[in-house]
Amino acid sequence: MKKRTIGIMGAMPEEIEGVVALLANPEVTKMGKRSYFTGQINGIDTVVVFSRWGKVAAATTVTTLIHEFKITELLFTGVAGAIHSDLKIGDIVLGKRLLQHDMDARPLMEQYEIPLLSKTYFESDTVHLAIAAKAVQKVFENKALHTVIATEDLMQFDIAQPKLVIGDIASGDQFFSGNEQKQGLATQLPNVLCVEMEGAAVAQVCYEYEIPFSIIRTISDVADDNSHIDFPAFIQKISSKYAAEIIKNIFEQI
Ligand code: ADE
After folding, report:
1. Which of 83, 115, 167, 234 has the smallest C-beta neighbourhood within 10 Å, fewest atoms?
2. CATH (domain of 47)
């Protein structure tokens, strides 16, 4: 059987800091302006890396994880802007289907279709999705966030009873920071829960190399006129704590 090695990617240094701290015997390899932290979590070989922003950065990073570090599974943790009106800051979205909202090769093919793959969405596999869902539920049930995040920080974002939602995530090389932009996407793609800038690129590469993946996103802003203020504050005070708690729970199940 192939040796198991789990790749963990985050799109911000703050998001992976807490995860790197979980590594036993940590070592770092620098390559292509990235630092790949290797070690073990609960005895399983793991590589943790900050992917940088956007689809190209994410795709090259996951390709390096596959070729150089021989990962067999991929977890992506990060933040996202809410598109669906039921989502609040602090909620978590697990990507069941990942789509690239800025892919448009019309009239050669349908809008959003990925050239040569005849696919619009990349789907997470159900086993990994269930493991991630259980890990997130456990964080919420144990009120783990209240022990690792200061109450005033949770209050600043009005995070009281965050929830888990599973569904469609849209990725593209755009930061959403206005109601008009948000409404445009919601009208075009009514099933999309949230937007971010990497998930569907990671999903495409994983699909092409047959690597199972989970995309785990915490809502940092609601992709509106305030998102450029909420996003950096959330990253600084909250998101790294979320990622580490979820990853710990995932490794307890695998
Ligand atoms: N990631 C977090 N918030 C986002 C937003 N508003 N747009 C795109 N990516 C994001």
Report:
1. 115
2. 3.40.50.1580
User: Could you count the other beta carbons within 10 Å of the beta carbon of residue 178?
Assistant: 15
The residue among 64, 74, 70, 67 whose CA lies nearest residue 31 is 64
CA distance linking residue 88 with residue 194, whole number of Å:
11
Per residue in 112-159, pLDDT (tens digit) is 999 999 999 999 989 999 999 999 999 998 788 888 888 898 998 999
Task: Give the residues surrounding ligand 1 with Cβ less than 6 Å away.
Answer: 79-81, 175-177, 195-197, 220-221, 223, 227, 231
Distance 214 CA to ligand 1 centre (A): 18
**177 CA → ligand 1 middle, Å:** 8
Q: Work out how many domains the chain is built from and give that number.
A: 1
C-alpha dihedral sign at 175, 51, 55, 206: negative
Residue nearest to atom 9 of ligand 1 (CA): 196
Residue with more model confidence, 116 or 235? 116
Domain containing 186 equals 5-253
User: How far does the centroid of ligand 1 lie from the alpha carbon of residue 227, in Å?
Assistant: 8
